[in-house]
Design a protein that fits this description.
Order of helices and strands: HEEEEEEEEEEEEEEEEHEEEEEEEEEE
Family: Belongs to the TolB family.
CATH topology of the largest domain: Neuraminidase
Number of strands: 26
Strand content: 35-45%
Largest sheet: 4 strands, antiparallel
Structural class: mainly beta
Oligomer: single chain
C-alpha cells in the first residue's frame, strides 16, 4: 500500500513538474511575444489606432515608394543608401515577411546606371516595371540647384523611360521611346493596363497603355502636373495628385519651370477619374501639398500624405479621406515625415516610408504595419 502510494505520489510530482515546466515555457514564450510586440509598438506613436505591429525594413538612406507584389509576399522599392554604394536611387526588391535589411543588401533589379524611380510588380510577380535615365547617361543626372527663393523643386528628367525587368535585373523590354519624361508607372489590379505620367504633349499628363506598351491613350488634359497615379482595387478608377495653376503668375511660373525640367510640388490636391479619364473629380481642397494617394481596400476611401496641418513645409503625415472629400482622418503622427502608403492587395497590411526611429538623422526608412480597420 505504501509502495503504491509512493508511486502515485511520484507520478503526481512528475505531473506537477511537467505542468510547471510547460507553464514556465508558455510564460517564456508569452514574455518573448510581449517583448517583441513592445519593440514593434515602440515604432508607433500615440493615436495611430489603425496601425499595429509596426516593423522596420530598411536602416539608412532614403528608401521610398515600396509597392506590393500581387501575391502579398514581396516589395519592390527605390533606395539611395550609401552603404550599398549607390550614387542615386536604384530599384530593389525583398520579401515582405523576412525583409529586414540589417541582414544585408537586398537584390538590386535596376542596372546601377543613371537614376531610377517608381517600380511596380507586373502580373505574375516575376517581372517589374520601373523608370530609368540610364539610356541618357551612365552617371546620376544632376540634382537641381537650390533657388535663392528657397522654393523646393522636383526634377523631371527628360531621359526617363519605362522598362520591364525580371527579378534577376535583366531588362526584357523598353515600353516607352518618346522624347521627354515617361515615369511614375503603376499597374491595374485587373492586370490589363498601366497608368503613367508623360510630358510628350508639352504638359505633364496621365496616360494609360497595355501591358506590352501598346494602345497608349492620354486621359488628362488640364494644365498642371498630373502624377503619382494608382488604380482602384477593381481597376475601374484612378486616383492621382495634381497641381492646377490658376493665376497668370502661377501659370507663367509653372510653364517656365517645366521648360527647365522642374516642377514645384508645394501646391497639389488629389483627384479621381474613371480609368478612361472621364468623370474627373477633385477630392481634396486642403491647401499645401497633398500627394502619394492610394485607394483603401474598400475602393471608396483614399489614404495619402499631406503637410496641410504642419507649421513647416516638411511635416507630412498620412491621412485618409472618403472619395467624395468627406470624413478626413489623420492616420500617422510622425513629427517630420510619413508618405508613400500602399495597402497590400489582401488589405491586411500597410507599407509606408517614415522618418521615425532614425535617431535624429535625415534617413527615411520603410515600415510595414498590420492594418486595423
Amino acid at each position: 500500500m505504501l509502495k503504491n502510494y509512493s508511486i502515485f505520489f511520484l507520478a503526481f510530482l512528475l505531473t506537477q513538474t511537467a505542468c510547471n515546466n510547460a507553464k514556465q515555457s508558455k510564460e517564456k514564450i508569452s514574455d518573448s511575444i510581449q517583448a517583441e510586440s513592445a519593440m514593434e509598438d515602440s515604432l508607433k506613436y500615440d493615436n495611430e489606432a489603425h496601425l499595429s505591429n509596426i516593423r522596420q525594413l530598411t536602416f539608412g538612406g532614403d528608401n521610398a515608394e515600396a509597392y506590393w507584389s500581387f501575391d502579398n509576399t514581396m516589395l519592390v522599392f527605390q533606395s539611395n543608401n550609401e552603404a550599398w554604394d549607390l550614387g542615386c536611387d536604384q530599384i530593389f526588391y525583398t520579401e515582405a515577411e523576412h525583409g529586414d535589411m540589417r541582414k544585408g543588401k537586398p537584390k538590386m533589379l535596376s542596372t546601377g546606371l543613371g537614376r531610377t524611380t517608381c517600380a511596380y510588380f507586373m502580373p505574375g510577380d516575376t517581372t517589374i516595371i520601373y523608370a530609368s535615365t540610364h539610356l541618357g547617361g551612365e552617371n546620376c543626372p544632376p540634382v537641381p540647384e537650390r533657388r535663392t527663393d528657397g522654393k523646393y523643386l522636383w526634377p523631371i528628367y527628360n531621359s526617363y523611360d519605362i522598362f520591364i525587368a525580371d527579378l534577376e535585373g535583366n531588362i526584357l523590354k523598353q515600353l516607352t521611346k518618346e522624347d521627354g519624361y515617361d515615369a511614375e508607372a503603376t499597374v491595374s489590379p485587373k492586370r490589363d493596363k498601366i497608368v503613367f505620367t508623360s510630358d510628350r504633349s508639352g504638359d505633364l499628363e496621365l496616360y494609360t497603355m497595355d501591358l506590352d506598351g501598346g494602345n497608349v491613350t492620354q486621359i488628362t488634359d488640364e494644365l498642371g502636373y498630373d502624377g503619382g497615379a494608382f488604380f482602384s482595387p477593381d481597376g475601374s478608377k484612378i486616383v492621382f495628385r495634381a497641381s492646377r495653376p490658376q493665376s497668370n503668375e502661377e501659370i507663367k511660373e509653372y510653364k517656365e519651370l517645366l521648360k527647365e525640367g522642374l516642377v514645384a510640388p508645394t501646391a497639389m490636391e488629389l483627384f479621381v477619374c474613371d480609368a478612361d479619364g472621364s468623370n474627373l473629380k477633385q477630392v481634396t481642397k486642403l491647401g499645401k501639398a497633398n500627394w502619394a494617394p492610394f485607394y483603401h481596400p474598400s475602393g471608396n476611401k483614399i489614404i495619402f500624405s499631406s503637410n496641410h496641418k504642419g507649421q513647416r513645409g516638411f511635416e507630412f503625415n498620412l491621412f485618409m479621406i472618403n472619395e467624395d472629400g468627406t470624413g478626413l482622418e489623420q492616420i500617422t503622427r510622425d513629427p517630420v515625415f510619413d508618405a508613400f502608403p500602399m495597402f497590400s492587395p489582401d488589405g491586411k497590411k500597410l507599407v509606408f516610408s517614415s522618418n521615425r526611429n532614425n535617431q535624429g538623422t535625415r534617413d527615411t526608412n520603410l515600415f510595414i504595419a498590420d492594418w486595423i480597420e
